[in-house]
Amino acid sequence: MKNTIKVLGIAVIITAIALNALLLTGCPSPDSGNNKTLDSIAVTTLPTKTEYAIGEDFKSAGMVVTATYSDGSTAEVTDYTTDISGYDKTTAGTKTITVTYQGKTAEFTVKVIDRVATPTANPAVGAIASGTEITLSTITEGAEIWYTTDNSTPSKNGATSTKYTDKIAISSPTTIKAIAVKDGMSDSSLLTAVYTLLFTSAPVLTLEPENAKIIYTWTASDPAADSYDVYWKQGDSLTADVVKTGTKNHRCGKRGNNNRPDQRHGI
Length: 267
Known about the structure:
The chain is built from 1 helix and 21 strands. Mean pLDDT is 78; it is low at 1-32 and 247-267. The protein has one helix spanning 2-26, and strands at 38-45, 51-53, 64-69, 74-77, 81-83, 93-101, 104-113, 120-122, 126-128, 132-137, 144-148, 162-163, 168-170, 174-181, 191-197, 204-208, 213-217, 228-234, 237-245, 249-255, 260-261. The chain is flat, with a radius of gyration of 35 Å.
């Protein structure tokens, strides 16, 4: 009986040791999840601009670079370097751009074509004060700029086009469309610059308590416009409701319990 007990005891000890060894063998080392390496990179989204006129600088805006690792995972990376030594902006042709990240490289191409550079406007676009003067320019030496303000497409000597010779004063909401042209080269791409006007003074508000109406009036010194957007404020934020009117006088009244403006026109 004693021999049997000893044998069983040894068997249990051996089994326990074997099981422990099996468990240790099957467990990954603490660092095993951090051993992935970088396999490659790729430009998965090209820059927004891939076609340039002679003289234009390369722009990487919109480009996405993705890294692929040894475990098959991928991730977008941003701390890469861009080599544009292959981008010669003085001659037409296909140009090679090289991207490098942690010793891995990827290449893509863009085109420089024999075209006049697109005009630029200063100020570019947006809300401006009445009387602001807009400057148009192009980096292509010797090119002419032709523009329109009636929303038509400009062309050289076009019936509705004007040759740019001086700054353009803006006194009403205006859309400037412009191209640059030069003999022996393709016309530039179209510039579209949309301008709205800032009010020079705030509207005057008058409250009529007896019928809960608010009258707001703009002075004659404010710029002319076809319509005005009026946002109703209740509490800390503006609502999405917009009251529009084609006159400079308009009544806003509260309706119901939601304090939103009604849309009665006139005074």
